[in-house]
Amino acid sequence: MSVHLDGSTRRGDFTLELALDVEPGEVVAVLGPNGSGKTTLVDVLAGLTGLTEGALSGPGGGAGDAAGAVGWDAPASRTWVAPQQRRVGLVLADPLLFPHLSVRDNVAFGPRSRGAGRATGRRTADAELATVGLADRAGARPSTLSTGQAQRVALARALAGEPRLLLLDEPLSALDAETRVTTRATLAARLRTFEGCTVLVTHDPLDALTIADRLVFLDAGRVVQVGTPHEVVSRPRNPYVARVVGLNLWRATADATGVVRLDGGAAVQVAEPPDAADVWVTVRPSAVALWPQEPHGSPRNGWRLTVVAVELAGQSARVSLTGRIDLVAEVTAASVAELSLHPGTEVWATVKATEVSTYAA
Amino acid sequence: MTRERATTGGPGAPARSVLAIPAALALVLLLLPLVALLSRVRWGSLGSALSTAGAGEAVSLSIRTTLTTVVLCALLGTPLAWVLARSTGRWLPWLRAVVTVPLVLPPVVGGVALLVAWGREGLVGGPIHDWFGWTIPYSWVRVVLAETFVSMPFYVLAVEGAMRALDGRYDAVAATLGASPWRTFRSVVVPMVLPGVAAGATLAWARALGEFGATITFAGSFPGRTQTAPLAVYQALEIDPDAATALSMVMLLVCVAVLALLRGRWWR
C-alpha cells in the first residue's frame, strides 16, 4: 500500500527526475527552492501531469498486485489511472473551497463523488469536521470562514474521501504567522491518526522538522538528499539543504596526513582526521567567533573576512562573511554593536578545530 | 441592497471635460430613434394597430422560439464552451474560429447556408428527404434552427470566457475528490460560472429576438407559423406604418422589461 515513484517528466524544455517512496502512515516532506519541481511532483502523484518515462505505483484504485500496490502511471506500458480513481487527497496553499456549497457539502463532496448517499455523506463530513475542530461551522458558507478555518476545512475535505495518499502542497504558506502556528498543530495532530501515505511540500523547515518522518530535498529538478530530520540537520549533503538547516557546509578533500582542504583552497584544522578522502565539512554558525584583530592562543582556524550582510533576529545576529571562504557566523546583538559590523567591515573569524565536523561525501 | 451611485463630480470628472461632447453625441445617436419611435405611437388606436399587424401571434411566436433557442444554447453550448475552455489541442484555435464565424457572417448568408444544409435539396436535408420523404416544415422548427445558428456563438463565447477565468485548480481538486468529468462539470463548474451563463443567455436571447435575415431566408415569413415579431414589423411597414410603430414599441417594452429584470441580478 505504499507509493513508489521513479521516473521523469518534462516541464517546458526542463526535465525533472523524480524519485520518491512513501510508506503507509509515513509523512514525507519535500523541500526545495522555487522552480525545483515540488509542485510538478505533486501533479504527477495526483495524476494531473503524466510521466514521460519511468513508473509510478500507488496505494489503490484499479486492480492491484498482491501487496496492494497499483500501477498508476507507466508510459512504457501505457498504464494510466485518472486522478478520480487514485484515492488521492489534495490540499493546496489556497483552500479552494467550492464557494457555492456549504462547508458540510464541501467536505461531503468526496464521499458523494464516490457514491455515498446524501445522509452518509453528511455524517462523514460532520465527523471529519469535528476532527479539525469545526463541527459548529458545518452550515456556514466558505466565504464567511477565516483563512485558517478555510484551510482546516480543505484538509477535512481531502480526508473525508478516505484517500490512501494525501498531498499537501504548501498548506500553511498562505496563512499569517499566528494562524500558521495553530493550523500546523491541527495538521500535525490529524496526520498522526492518518493511516495513509502523506507527502508534504513546503519551503518552511519548521513544517518539515515538526511534522515529517522523512525529508526529501529537491534542487533543479532532481532529488539531492533524503533522510530523517535528524540525519538531515546534522549531516547535510547539499548547499541548499545546509542553508535550510542553517549550517556552513563545504565540500573538501582530506590527504593521508589528515589535512582537510576545502574546494576553494583553504585548509581547515580538524580535531579528528576524517576516514574518507572525499568529505563534507560543516560548522555551526554559533561556533564561529569574530574578532577585530587576529587573535592569538589555542590552535584554531582563522580567516580575515569581509562582512556582506547582517541580519538581526531577537538577541542574536547572523553575519554573512566572504573572503578566502564564505562563512555565516551567529553572534550576539551586543557584539554586532561592539565590532560595528556592517557590510564592508573587515574582521577575523575563528573556529576551534573541535567545532569542525567532517563526514564522508 | 445598496448600489454605489455613479458620480460626475469625482476627481477625474470626465463629464466636465471635452470628452462630454462625443459622449453626448453617442447618447443622442442611441436615444433619438427610440424617442422618435415613442413619439410616433398613436396611443388612441394602439389596440387596432396591433391587431392589424398580427402582433399577438408574432410576439408569442418570437417569445416561444427565442426561449427554445436559449434552452438549446444552454444544453449544447455549455458543454461546448467547457471543451473549448479546457482543451489544449492544436486544433483548438481553428475550432474557436469556426464557432465565431456565424457571429460575423451576414445573417442572410447564414440563412442561405442553413437552406443548403437542411433544405429539401440540402446536404443533410436532401438525403433525409430521399430516404424518409420528410423535410423540415416551414414552422417554428426552422425559426429555432435559424435563431440557434446566429445566437449560439454569443452564448458560447460568453460562457467560455467565464469558464477560462475559473481557476483550473478547482477542477483538479474536484478530480482528486473522485468526481468524474461529468460530475465536476455539473456540480462545480456550472454553478461557479452561473453569472457567465446568465450573461451568455441574455446575449443569445437578445440576438435571437432581433433575428431577421437568417429567419426570412431559411424559414420564410408566414404569419402565425414563421413570422416572428421583427418580420411582422417589416411587413407591417409596407402596409400600415402605424401598425409597424405600434409593434416596434411592444418589442421595445419587452426588451426594456427583460433588461430591467436582469440588471439588478447580474449587472451591478
TrEMBL record, chain A:
SUPFAM superfamilies: MOP-like, P-loop containing nucleoside triphosphate hydrolases. Residues 296-360 form the Mop domain. It comes from the Bacteria. Signal peptide: none annotated. The keyword Transport applies. InterPro entries: AAA+_ATPase, ABC_SmlMolc_Importer, ABC_transporter-like_ATP-bd, Mo/tungstate-bd_C_term_dom, Mop_domain, P-loop_NTPase, Transp-assoc_OB_typ1. One of its GO terms (molecular function) is ATP binding. PROSITE patterns: ABC_TRANSPORTER_2 (PS50893), MOP (PS51866). Keywords: ATP-binding, Molybdenum, Nucleotide-binding, Transport. Residues 3-245 form the ABC transporter domain. The keyword Heme does not apply. This is ABC transporter ATP-binding protein.
From TrEMBL, chain B:
Part of the binding-protein-dependent transport system for molybdenum; probably responsible for the translocation of the substrate across the membrane. SUPFAM superfamilies: MetI-like. Residues 59-262 form the ABC transmembrane type-1 domain. PANTHER family: MOLYBDENUM TRANSPORT SYSTEM PERMEASE PROTEIN MODB. The keyword Transmembrane applies. The chain crosses the membrane at residues 20-41, 61-85, 97-119, 139-159, 188-206, 243-262. This is Molybdenum transport system permease. InterPro entries: MetI-like, MetI-like_sf, ModB_ABC. It comes from the Bacteria.
